[in-house]
Structure formats: structure tokens, C-alpha cells
UniProtKB/TrEMBL annotation:
It is a multi-pass membrane protein. This is Sodium-dependent transporter. Pfam families: SNF. It comes from the Bacteria. It is found in: Membrane. SUPFAM superfamilies: SNF-like. Keywords: Membrane, Transmembrane, Transmembrane helix, Transport.
Length: 441
């Protein structure tokens, strides 16, 4: 079996974690929810909920050496047969992939627009975005196809020559672009405003709702609940302190989110724009600001979109790998065929999701007031992922005997670290995640 190298493993899991989710929403959450106070809450949520579930997936993956579906089957005790269906979580990966790649396609379009010029008025920027998203179906389908084809190509090459290599190249480049943008930002007057926006603590803003938001964000951002970490852990290097790997990935992810925040808000404050989140931020506010900066803005816009695309592609490829590895191992399929099936399903879903966002088709593809795009986002992030998280906590914390779990730690998780982690996955993590789910309904 080909295994990741140590750097390959850390960068590939970090590549999966660091993506559009974190870079888009983290800065905004920080700014709106008490600055540094939120950062502190987030760090705790990240370490307690994120890293502990991350370690559960790692333990399962390492101990079984099999795909997610077979893993949950092989650990299920006879009298609790239903536990073997835990592998269904791999489906979430396909669903997330289908809308995630649509967004990546939009980013490719904007990357090209950034070279050829963008509107310099708010009116123009809004119109451009509205027109593109609602009526330029062919362009959107083309870019979706390009992104999906790139992912398919990488996945076809397998874990070592595809996923690992991609991450070994793109992740340092991503870091490089981010650091470049950070240095540029520090030279701007508004950097200090951005810094204050992110770091001035306002503890009065910390409510239970904010804590819950932080848990949800920690969970989504670490790519938990799909079996990605589990599947990557199948091919983890045989030796090496994997608990340390988990902490490293979490720190890397955190670091990227912070830089993204500092950079994004420096631009926002330099031009007196409103700090908003997600789509409005990336496709309207920032392009408008870049367009008003002249040539340097063009370069920065281009680099910014390239960075987002890189961050997104390294996440996207990871989403389909759990299903691929199941199809390969269970049905003896060639990687190429397994990959063809999962990519094709995801692409077809992607097209429907894309159409649900356009003027012509939105009416037919809207159900109970939400179009399919929004449904996919909602069902996966608010329901399927956290549910899988609780499932894994209960499975490992309550169903498997403690000695067995201890043995799965292979001596890397022991003493008070083991005891602390074990308490967290038995009580704190499942309760916290359940609360998050209830609040999101
Ligand atoms: N962590 C990714 C991001 O922040 C998105 C993501 C959520 C993800 N769940 C996942 C990626 C599961 C892969 C697998 O953008």
C-alpha cells in the first residue's frame, strides 16, 4: 500500500481543512462576535470539539486500515448491528463537492475577469455579479466542468501521485500568496483598523449562540464528519506521533484563517466598505475595491482568486476520496472506474445545483423557500456533518471498550491526555455538537 509521507499527510489533511469555508466565514464571525473574545472561544472549540473528533477519525482510520464503510462495519458489535451503517457519511462528501465546485467555478470566472478588468462602481459590481450568477449558465457550466475535470485527474492518480503531490505543491504556494498579501496589507494604513476589528476583545458579545457558532465553524473547518480524515488516515505513515499531526493541522488551519481575516479586512477598511460575509464579500465588495486600485489591484485580485481556488481544490479532491476508496476496496473496482462514477454523480448533481441558482430554473428547483443550492449547504453542514460527529463520539466513547480505544492510540495518546480526551468524546463533544445542531434547525 502506498502511504503518505509525513509532510504529505499533514499538508493533505490541512489542504482538506483549509478552504472556502474557513477563509470566507471565519474573519466575518470574528469581526461580528466580539473580536479577540471570539478568537479565544473559537480556539477552545477548535481544540476541544474539533481536534478531539479529528482524533477519533484518525484512530478509526489507522486501526482499520480500510475505507469508512468497512471501518464502521468491522467495529460494530453483533447486538448493535445498526452501527455498521455509519459509513453512509461518505455520501455527504459527494453532496458538498457538488456545490463547492460550483463556487470554485465562479472563482475561476472572476480570476479571468480580474485580468480583463472589472467595474469600478458598486452598481456595476453588483450588476456584474447578479447577471453572471443568474443568467450566464453556459459559462458557469464550463467552469464547473473545468474544476471537476481537474479534481478527477488528480484523484485518478491516487493518494501518492495525485493527492499528496497536489498538496505538496499547492499548499506552499497558497502560503506564499497569503504571506505576500499579508505583507502588502501591513503597509496600508487600514491594517491597524483590520487588526483592531479582529483582535479587540469584547467579551460582552459572547453569548451561548456565539459559542455554538464557534463549535459549528470548528467542525466544518476541519472537514469532519465525512470520513475524509478517516480515509486519509488509512494511508498515514506507519510511525509518527499522529496526535501531534492533528494539532499541527488545526494550527495551520487557524493560522490561514487569521491571515485571511487580516488581509480581507485591510482592503475592506481601506475603502470604507461594509464588512459582509461570503458571496457578497468575495464577488462584490472585494472585486470592487481591487478594481479601484489600478494595476496593483489587478495583480492582487488575480492572486487573491488564485489563492481561493487553490485552497478550494485541495479541499474538493478530499471530499470524493472516501467514496472512491469504498468503491475500490469493496467492489474491487479500478480506481479510474470508481472515480468516474463518483465524479460523474457529483458533476450531475453540481449542474442541478448550479441551475437552481439561475433565473430561468430557480422556480422549478426551489422547495419550501430554499433553492437546491441552499438546501445542499444547509443539510450537509447543519445536519449530516454534525450528526456524523455525534455518531462517532458515541461509537468510540460508549460502544467500544475503553481498553480497545486505548490500544488504538498505539501509545501516542496516553496518560492524562488520553483520559481528558476520552471524557471529552464521551460527554462534552456529543453534547456540544447536539446543541449546535438543535440551534441550527
Ligand atoms: N473544511 C473545508 C473548508 O473549510 C470544507 C469542508 C467541510 C470539507 N466539510 C468537509 C472538506 C469535508 C472536505 C470534507 O472549506
Amino acid at each position: 500500500m502506498t502511504r503518505f509521507s509525513k509532510a504529505g499527510f499533514v499538508l493533505s489533511t490541512a489542504g482538506s481543512a483549509i478552504g472556502l469555508g474557513g477563509i470566507w466565514s471565519f474573519p466575518y464571525l470574528v469581526g461580528q462576535n466580539g473580536g479577540f473574545a471570539f478568537v479565544l472561544v473559537f480556539v477552545v472549540a477548535f481544540l476541544v470539539f474539533g481536534v478531539s473528533v479529528f482524533i477519533i477519525e484518525m484512530l478509526f482510520g489507522r486501526a482499520s486500515g480500510q475505507n469508512a464503510v468497512s471501518t464502521f462495519e468491522s467495529f460494530a458489535p453483533k447486538h448493535l448491528g445498526f452501527l455498521k451503517y455509519g459509513g453512509f457519511m461518505v455520501i455527504s462528501g459527494v453532496l458538498i463537492f457538488s456545490f463547492y465546485t460550483v463556487v470554485l467555478g465562479w472563482l475561476v470566472h472572476y480570476m479571468f475577469l480580474s485580468i480583463f478588468g472589472m467595474p469600478t462602481t458598486l452598481e456595476g459590481a453588483k450588476n456584474l455579479w447578479g447577471n453572471f450568477a443568474s443568467s450566464q449558465i453556459l459559462w458557469q457550466m464550463l467552469w464547473l466542468f473545468v474544476i471537476v475535470a481537474i479534481c478527477a485527474y488528480i484523484l485518478n492518480r491516487g493518494v501518492k501521485a495525485g493527492i499528496e503531490k497536489l498538496n505538496l505543491i499547492l499548499m506552499p504556494m497558497l502560503l506564499f500568496i497569503f504571506l505576500g498579501l499579508l505583507v502588502y496589507s501591513t503597509l496600508q494604513d487600514a491594517f491597524w483598523d483590520s487588526f483592531k476589528f479582529l483582535f479587540q476583545p469584547d467579551f460582552s458579545k459572547i453569548t451561548s449562540e456565539v459559542v455554538i457558532k464557534a463549535i459549528g465553524q470548528a467542525f466544518f473547518s476541519l472537514s469532519l464528519g465525512v470520513g475524509v480524515i478517516l480515509t486519509y488516515s488509512n494511508s498515514m505513515p506507519k510511525h509518527g506521533n499522529f496526535v501531534r499531526f492533528a494539532v499541527m493541522v488545526a494550527l495551520l488551519n487557524f493560522f490561514f484563517c487569521l491571515i485571511a481575516g487580516l488581509v480581507i479586512f485591510t482592503f475592506i477598511f481601506s475603502y470604507g466598505a461594509e464588512p459582509t460575509e461570503g458571496v457578497g464579500l468575495v464577488f462584490v465588495s472585494l472585486p470592487l475595491i481591487f478594481a479601484n486600485m489600478g494595476v496593483s489591484g489587478q495583480v492582487i485580485a488575480f492572486l487573491f482568486f488564485v489563492a481561493l481556488i487553490f485552497a478550494g481544490i485541495t479541499s474538493a479532491v478530499s471530499m470524493l476520496e472516501p467514496l472512491n476508496s469504498y468503491l475500490i476496496e469493496r467492489y474491487g473496482m479500478k480506481r479510474r472506474n470508481a472515480n468516474f462514477i463518483s465524479v460523474l454523480c457529483a458533476y450531475l448533481l453540481g449542474v442541478v445545483v448550479l441551475l437552481s441558482n439561475t433565473a430561468v430554473f430557480s422556480e422549478d428547483l426551489t422547495f419550501f423557500g430554499k433553492n437546491l443550492f441552499d438546501w445542499f449547504v444547509y443539510i450537509t453542514s447543519s445536519f449530516m456533518l454534525p450528526f456524523a460527529g455525534v455518531f462517532m463520539c458515541i461509537y468510540m466513547g460508549w460502544i467500544l471498550p475503553k481498553e480497545r480505544v486505548y490500544a488504538m492510540g498505539e501509545g501516542y495518546l496516553k496518560g492524562i491526555y488520553f483520559e481528558g480526551w476520552y471524557k471529552v468524546i464521551r460527554y462534552i463533544a456529543p453534547l456540544g455538537i447536539l446543541l449546535t445542531m438543535v440551534s441550527l434547525i
